[in-house]
Amino acid sequence: MKFTVGDRILLKRSGEEGFVVRFLSNTMMEVDVKGTLFPVYTEDVDHPYLKWFTEKKLTTAKKALEIPVEKTTTRSVRLAQGIYLSFIPQFQDQTGEDIIELFRIHLLNETADAIQFQYLVRNAKGNTFFQHRGGLHAFGNIYLHPIELELLNEQPRFHWEVLNTSSPVLGAKGLLRIRPAQLANHIHEMLDQNQASFSLCLSQELSPLEMAPATPNLLPLPKLGLHAFKDLNTRVHLETLAEPVIDLHIKAIPGNTGNLKPEEILQAQMNLLHQKLDAAVIAGLPSMLIIHGLGKGRLRQRVHELLAGIKGIDSYSNHWMSGYGWGATEVIFHR
After folding, report:
1. Taking the model in full, what pTM does it have?
2. d(Cα 178, Cα 156) in Å, to the nearest integer?
């Protein structure tokens, strides 16, 4: 797409408009957006005319249809008070047949209090499938992960623990295991009643715990799962938490990183990134920012080599960003 100095441009990622100031090379130009000058790749900008015409067309169509606005109604049906796991089915793309391919699992907080939660799933062999911990506001829900029907039929173990954020002495924990016959009954009942999901109650109320953590931010990891949080090759303690920004500088990596050789440091950085990418894909994050710095470019090269082989990544780009310069790569995951 050709541009000339003074042309109006549209930044594809942010949707902001500006104009071309000058050309830096065959692939880069300097643009002015709201008085700020910065370089961009030619492939990251577009002409704004399509956006203008589309917006005008949509506005005109909306006025012509004059669709009445539906009044907002409150939710009439709500689950009884408690903490729930909700299983939302995803069907195969086959018309007229109720063939479930997988379930998307959500954690529901149907209480008036904010909670801190810890969640871990293991398959029948004891291998950790997914783990996450975080916070959830009152009457809120959070998407955890997908699970295929075949794996769910093998009776995985759902370990969970919740604490009241304002009163950490109140909490509950347990283990959920769904037997095949129970799973079949839940699915049949959901389909017969034309429901969008089925939910299982983990706890109806939080009660005093004998040994509660000092603060909800320091929830202990399950003893059975400690081995899944450690990389013994690099002596670095890692946690599988889905995060939108990952800093690969060695000082930012948690755990014992002292007295590591350069190759061990690089391996620790790549192990952390690999684990965080897997967690992001499972958690359904739309994007991730990987901070690798500049240096000699070795870490950036290894990062890009890893990204090229990860399923679930739509694209990645090492472009200039405010606050990071050229020292970060943006990853866009498949929606």
Report:
1. 0.43
2. 8
Number of Cβ within 10 Å of residue 299's Cβ equals 22
* Mean pLDDT to the nearest integer, 108-121: 92
Q: Of 218, 245, 270, which residue sits at a domain end?
A: 218
Q: How far apart are CA 117 and CA 162, in angstroms?
A: 4
The mean pLDDT value of the chain amounts to 78
Domain enclosing residue 305, as ranges: 232-333
Asked whether residue 86 carries a pLDDT value surpassing 90, the answer given is: yes
Are residues 86 and 165 both part of a single domain?
yes
- Give the ranges where the chain is alpha helix by DSSP (H): 49-65, 149-152, 180-192, 262-283, 298-308
Average pLDDT over residues 5-18: 87
pLDDT(107) > 60: yes
23/25 Cα distance (integer angstroms): 6
Which DSSP symbol is given to 325? B
Contact by Cβ (8 Å): 213, 195: no
Say whether both 87 and 212 belong to one domain: yes
Nearest to 104 by CA among 137, 69, 141, 75: 141
Domain of 285: which CATH number?
A: 3.30.1370.110
Average pLDDT on 8-20 reads 87
Amino acid identity at 79: L
Between β-strands 245-247 and 236-237, what pairing exists: parallel, antiparallel or unpaired? unpaired
Q: How far apart are CA 146 and CA 89, in angstroms?
A: 9
User: How close are the terminal C-alpha atoms of the chain, in Å?
Assistant: 27
DSSP line for 57-113: HHHHHHHHH-PPPPPP------PPSEEEEEEEEEE-S-TT---EEEEEEEEEEESSS
| C-beta of residue 160 within 8 angstroms of C-beta of residue 109 | no
Q: What is the pLDDT of residue 64?
A: 56
| Cα(202)–Cα(119) distance, integer angstroms | 12
* DSSP for residue 25: S
> Which pLDDT does position 161 carry in this prediction?
92
